C-alpha cells in the first residue's frame, strides 16, 4: 500500500515538474514585436511646411554679384519664397532676363523696377521743370510736426525791421509747393508707387510716425524759375510753411498731368514785394517829375544793388 502510494505521488510530482518546465520555457521566450503606429511628428511637420509654402510669395533675387550696364542672364537670377514680399519686387525670372541694371548689385539683392531705372528716389518724384530743395524746419515752421509727403504748402517769409531793411514785412514767397519728403519719409514716385519700401510691421509704422514728427528737414518740389527766390528767402528772414486744404485737389491735378508752374510764377511775381526788399536793400527811388528824367537800370550782384542811369529828356 505504501509503495503504491509512493509511486502515485512520484508520478504526480513528475507531471507537475514537466508542466512547470513547459510553462517556464513559454515565459522565457521573447514576445513577438507589437506593431506600433508610426509617429505623427513627421506628418505634422510636412503638413506645416506645405501650408507655409502656400503663404510665401516668389521674389526674384540675384544669385551672384552683377556689374552695372550688363544685361542679366538666367544664371544671374534665382527665386526665393518670402512671407513678406518687398513692395514692387519682381516675381518671375523672365521679368529680369535681358534687362540692364544701372548700378552694381550684390548677391541676394531682390530686384524691383528701381533696379533698372537711373536716379534716386527724389529724382523719380519730380518732373523735368521741377527741382527738389531741402528746407530746414522745426516744430513751428513745420506746422507742429504734422506735415506729410504729398501735402501742399505756401512758403511765407517774415522780414524784421533792421538796419538793412527799412520795413517789417510778411509775404507769401511761393504758393502751393508739394512736399516730397518729411525727414526720412518719402512720398510717391511719378509712377504712383512708393519711392521707398513702406513699413512692414506696426512697430516700424510707429517708429516712422515718430521720426516724421521729430523731422528737422523737409524737401519741396520747386518750379525751376522760383528756385533762386526760395533759396534767397531761406537766408533773408524767417520762413513758415502754411498747409493748404486737401479740398483743393492739388495733388489730384498733379497726378492728372497738369502743370501749375506758370501760374505759380505769375502769382508769386504779382503778390511779391519788390525783389530789392527781399534782398534787404531799400526800395528804388521815384523818378523825378517833369524836365529831365533819369532812366535807370537796376543791377543786382548778390545783396548789392546799383543803379546805372542815363539822362532822358521829356517833352
From TrEMBL:
Name of the protein in question: Flp pilus assembly protein CpaB
Alphabetical list of CDD domains matching this protein: SAF_CpaB_FlgA_like
Domain SAF: 57-117
Pfam families found in the cross-reference section: RcpC, SAF
Organism: Pseudomonas spelaei
Organism lineage string: Bacteria, Pseudomonadati, Pseudomonadota, Gammaproteobacteria, Pseudomonadales
Listed InterPro entries: Pilus_assmbl_Flp-typ_CpaB (IPR017592), RcpC_dom (IPR031571), SAF (IPR013974)
Annotated spans, Disordered: 188-211
Amino acid at each position: 500500500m505504501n509503495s503504491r502510494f509512493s509511486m502515485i505521488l512520484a508520478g504526480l510530482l513528475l507531471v507537475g515538474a514537466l508542466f512547470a518546465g513547459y510553462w517556464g520555457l513559454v515565459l522565457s521566450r521573447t514576445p513577438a514585436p507589437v506593431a506600433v503606429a508610426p509617429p505623427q511628428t513627421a506628418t505634422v511637420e510636412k503638413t506645416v511646411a506645405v501650408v507655409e509654402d502656400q503663404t510665401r510669395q516668389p521674389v526674384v533675387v540675384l544669385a551672384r554679384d552683377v556689374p552695372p550696364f550688363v544685361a542679366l542672364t538666367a544664371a544671374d537670377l534665382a527665386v526665393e519664397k518670402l512671407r513678406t514680399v518687398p513692395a514692387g519686387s519682381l516675381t518671375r525670372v523672365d521679368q529680369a532676363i535681358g534687362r540692364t541694371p544701372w548700378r552694381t548689385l550684390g548677391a541676394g539683392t531682390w530686384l524691383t523696377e528701381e533696379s533698372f531705372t537711373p536716379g534716386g528716389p527724389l529724382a523719380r518724384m519730380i518732373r523735368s521743370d521741377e527741382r527738389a530743395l531741402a528746407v530746414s524746419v522745426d516744430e513751428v515752421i513745420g506746422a507742429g510736426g504734422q506735415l506729410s509727403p504729398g501735402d501742399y504748402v505756401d512758403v511765407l517769409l517774415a522780414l524784421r525791421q533792421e538796419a538793412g531793411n527799412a520795413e517789417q514785412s510778411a509775404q507769401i514767397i511761393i504758393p502751393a509747393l508739394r512736399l516730397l519728403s518729411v525727414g526720412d519719409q518719402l512720398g510717391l514716385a511719378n509712377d504712383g508707387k512708393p519711392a521707398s519700401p513702406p513699413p512692414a510691421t506696426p512697430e516700424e509704422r510707429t517708429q516712422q510716425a515718430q521720426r516724421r514728427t521729430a523731422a528737422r528737414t523737409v524737401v519741396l518740389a520747386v518750379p525751376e524759375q522760383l528756385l533762386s527766390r526760395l533759396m534767397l528767402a531761406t537766408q533773408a528772414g524767417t520762413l513758415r510753411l502754411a498747409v493748404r486744404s486737401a479740398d483743393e485737389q492739388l495733388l489730384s491735378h498733379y497726378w492728372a498731368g497738369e502743370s501749375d508752374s506758370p501760374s505759380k510764377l505769375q502769382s508769386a511775381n504779382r503778390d511779391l514785394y519788390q525783389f530789392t526788399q527781399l534782398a534787404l536793400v531799400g526800395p528804388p527811388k521815384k523818378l523825378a517829375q517833369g524836365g529831365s528824367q533819369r532812366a535807370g537800370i537796376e543791377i543786382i550782384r548778390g545783396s548789392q544793388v546799383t543803379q546805372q542811369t542815363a539822362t532822358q529828356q521829356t517833352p
